[in-house]
Amino acid sequence: MNTLRFLPILFFSLVLIGCQSDDAPADAGADASTTDAAIEQGTRPVTAEKLDLNTTSMEEFMTIPGVGDRMAHEFDEYRPYSSIVEFRREMAKYVDAETIAMYEDHVYVPIDINESDAETVAQILGLDLAGAEQLLAARPYDSHADFIAKVTEVAGGVSSQFARLYLASE
The whole model's pTM is what? Predict the structure, then answer.
């Protein structure tokens, strides 16, 4: 009977393994060289669920490694963010680019399907900057569903699942 309660966990794990492709970015347990290679290719590594920079509480920001009261306050002070470039520019006043990149493994700026810049769209896990440019070239989108369909075409089904998490409200 006790082994039956672990069956859903096993099933979920198998589903996640089945969703991965050879093109998928490195997973959260990847070593630093794999993560660095992914970043060099313009693809962010897969990490735990990311926090929306525009709606996350200061207490939640402080769960990010290296973020204390001061940085949580800075994250909050510059809201709302319209692009990840804006976030990088504001945080560069306080920390170096490497630290900002580490923060980006934990946070995102919501994507407006018809307004966001390529770097903001490229936050979608598994999508590189070239793929983001393809998505921008296909604008305007009539709906989130149209945008997701294009993400699937450009970067695959796993990326389209992540894209749903990053979209601003319709």
Answer: 0.70
